[in-house]
Amino acid sequence: MMTMVTADGQKEYALLEQLAARSGEVDRRVTAAVTEILDTVRADGDAALREYTRRFDGVDAPVRSIPRGQLEALAQKCSRRVYDALCRAAENIRDFHRRQLQQSWLTTREDGTILGQRVRGLDKVGIYVPGGTAAYPSSVLMNAIPARIAGVREIIMVTPPPKNGEYNYDVMAAAYIAGVDRVILCGGAQAVAALAYGTETVPKVDKIVGPGNIYVATAKRLLFGKVDIDMVAGPSEILILADRTAEPAYLAADLMSQAEHDRLASAILLTDDASVAERTLAELEKQIVTQPRAEIIRSALADYGAVIVCRDMDEAVAFANRLAPEHLEVMCEEPMSYIGRLDNAGSVFLGKYSPEPLGDYYAGPNHVLPTSGTARFFSPLSVDSFIKKSSFICYNRPALEAAVEDITAIARAEGLEAHARSIEVRFPEKQA
Questions:
Q1: Is residue 55 part of a domain?
Q2: Are residue 309 and residue 200 in the same domain, yes or no?
């Protein structure tokens, strides 16, 4: 089911190329189809949305907007057990993200100069939520709560309309709990286009976040620059560091927790103990037979899974930093000793009682994470994702006068004479 590799400095790194090829080249046919949708929505607005909704979702009706008042009524149809769990998860997420909030600031110098930075939330943000079996209420919480904490004025959620009139009440409950202002029943690339350009029903937003299929992801990619986006996410990933103390039953379960997402998901175990590696492979065979998504798990583990036996944990850490995984579990005797050594990971899970699903649903840190090695330079979704900053400068005459020669020297070194004269015109007495 999974390849077992003994690290030799070459074999394990060949896996990196295999993982990098998962996404492959951008599908030109998808890009062409999405481009046509974007152009049509931009030109025809709600009429285009209705036509695409009829064509792709099988629902022929005007685009409908659900205000917050009606959202509360839909949320009440969620099961009490799930609703209460979502509330507790939401509070954990709020508590974590409140600590990220930045403050505006200013400073003054002895010469009277005032410098500062103003921090405020974006005006409008759109959250895309898939329909059907891929609708995850946890993602609603993770996307909307940081936006609300950041001070976003209006949060609009788009999601495909129900075909049979039955809403996903878990998703609606999550939207209400997280503070979504309204839900617009529209999905696919056309919904992304509507958020970017604005239509009669859908307001134009400043940023679009949330997961979706290849058409949604392509639309976000093509519209970046017209509107900000969170990221173009790749397939799910988990990497586990394990020493001799790790429990193989836990390792197998955690590897499968990500492999069940889809056939392109990656699940890798790094250990310095061959016995742990062999027993984990045995546990995988034992546990997978009870999994409803066993076929998907087997495919993902066979194609993009591996158990790598390293010479020591230093070698494992070096590989982990090179891979820069979305999720990184540390199943070692002293997990906290690793945190300062793991530089490239979306989120790190420390110890045997911190499995990856804890982060997906409940603990508080965001589960919208960089994938495909981008954790080398990207960070998880956060309050920072929903704010903008402006600097401000206030010089008085003496302060500017003291800087005239330096500013004009730099301006003229760059060949920008008008820049220099913009400074000098304020001090005619200094001009020859």
A1: yes
A2: no
* Catalytic (active site) residue 405: no
3-state DSSP percent of the chain in helix, strand and coil, to 5: 50, 15, 35
Ramachandran bin of 198, using left for φ above 0, alpha for ψ from -120 to 50, beta for the remaining angles? left
Residues 37 and 161 in one domain: yes
- Total domains in the chain come to 3
Nearest 5°: phi and psi at 333? -60, -40
Helix 28-44 to helix 214-223 angle (10° resolution) is 70
Q: CA dihedral in degrees (213, 217, 223, 226; nearest 10)? A: 100
Give residue 407's domain range: 395-430
Q: Render pLDDT for 338-373 as a digit per residue (tens, 0 to 9).
A: 999 999 999 999 999 999 999 999 999 999 999 989
Q: Judge contact between 114 and 108, C-beta under 8 A.
A: yes
Which one of the listed residues 326, 329, 356, 367 is annotated catalytic?
326
Domain containing residue 151: CATH number: 3.40.50.1980
Tens-place pLDDT, residues 299-350? 999 999 999 999 999 999 999 999 999 999 999 999 999 999 999 999 999 9
Check: CB of residue 407 under 8 Å from CB of residue 423.
Answer: yes
- Residues 16 and 266: beta-carbon distance below 8 Å: no
At residue 141, the pLDDT reads: 98
Query: Largest Cα–Cα distance of the chain, in whole Å?
Result: 89
CA-wise closest residue to 161 among 202, 195, 130: 130
Q: Which two tokens stand for residue 291?
A: 């999994």
Cα separation of 104 and 263, whole Å? 45
Catalytic annotation present for 154: no
What is the predicted pLDDT for the residue at 426? Answer: 95
Q: Do residue 19 and residue 61 come from a single domain?
A: no
Of 12, 327, 356, 367, which is the active-site residue?
327
Residues 15-56 have pLDDT tens digits of: 777 777 765 556 789 999 999 999 999 999 999 999 999 999
Tokens matching residue 56:
């792709």
Closest CA to 187 of 157, 209, 166, 167: 157
Q: For tokens 């004269």, name the residue.
A: 421
Query: Are 65 and 184 in contact, with CB atoms under 8 Å apart?
Result: yes
Helix (H, G, I), strand (E, B) or coil at 97: helix
